[in-house]
Sequence to fold (429 residues):
Amino acid sequence: MNLTERDARHIWHPYTQMKTAAPPLPVVKAEGALLYDEQGRSYIDCVASWWVNLHGHAHPYIAEKVHQQLLQLEHVIFAGFTHPPAVELAERLIGHLPDRQNRIFYSDNGSSAVEIGIKMAIQYFFNQGRPRTQLVAFDMGFHGETFGAMAASGDHSFFTAFQDFLFEVKRIPNPVQGQEAAALEALEAHLKTGEVYAFIFEPLVMGAGGMIMYEPEILSQLMALCKKYGALCIADEVMTGFGRTGRMFACDYLTEQPDIMCLSKGLTGGTLPLAVTSCTEEVFEAFWSDDKYKTFFHGHSYTANPVGCAAALASLDLLESEGSARDRQRVEAQHRAFRARIEQHPAVRSSRQRGTILAVEFESEEATGYFNNLRDQLYHYFLDRGVLLRPLGNLIYMIPPYCITNEQLEQAYSAMEAAFSAFLLQEQD
Ligand SMILES: *Cc1c(COP(=O)(O)O)cnc(C)c1O
Fold:
């Protein structure tokens, strides 16, 4: 039996209809932006392996740091104990995070980072003897897979089975061009009840909801409203963090600063699962007490795993280098030139970009959305051409590792252009 057949016997893949999906591609090694299968065929990883990879695969510098840490200290309980990588990483993250962030709470995936942020916000008010009951989020926000994170997420078609089991979250319009006033008005109406403990959002780019992009000015205005009514702001930077949007964090574009931030995905450069929920000293102080009941009772077995922290420190070394900054600017410029090139293409409805994130909406007669049939066809069309892209319905996006070369970018762009022409003809048939 080959690897694919053995996989099919016992493995259940994420976000995959196991009956109808094509067999998974076995990847045996990777380097830079390239994934290699058993036959030595290569695929350009234009989605950074689900938005996690920053500096390329199997990066020797990160591998060396992880190796050293494994021989030194692989793991230790983080209640009652601490260790150098956790402390150093906290110090370095605080140096990069927006001004008021001052405390680092570790976990191991983005959904958990979001759960922790929501729980912190709830208990922040509870501990002060004035509990509040409402969470506010954007219509098409996406915050993860666990129950709190699903509840905070918008009405996504893939969560339908769980809808009746989720706690209620107040929705406001995505603040895209033309909807800014509606979003402000809806938020203020909720805030006026005095019941809102937090507003959670993906700053500037709403990823899984369809790479919906909006401007820093409107987000700053929404956050200022929260401040006026004493509600906390939770910035979910799980996808946008670590240089993705052109700055270190999307919040760096804002004039207001969040109270709580959620980080994961790029935190370790895409090497190991690790997450952080950071908060201001003011949030932390609501838990600081002689009263044991004001403790934040939350923790995961692998909280602050030293190997994960070592990978994150190595990733930060790379991210802080001039070469990485140049790469991000280069990718951003290449994306911009490609958008100009396809602007007039009859198959392109629209395109948008923030930093290294590019999204192109394909002109399709079917409704835009996750279950758009075009999606599966496009996915395989690109794979056949050695390019890994995972369209969201008829939306094709790129979130490449920063080290992707101009030649590799060109190969991906050309595959997209070829697809526009091929599929436009098909739609017209
Ligand atoms: C991916 C994602 C999450 C969930 O992170 P996981 O590590 O997959 O649990 C949460 N929020 C945003 C914005 C994301 O993109």
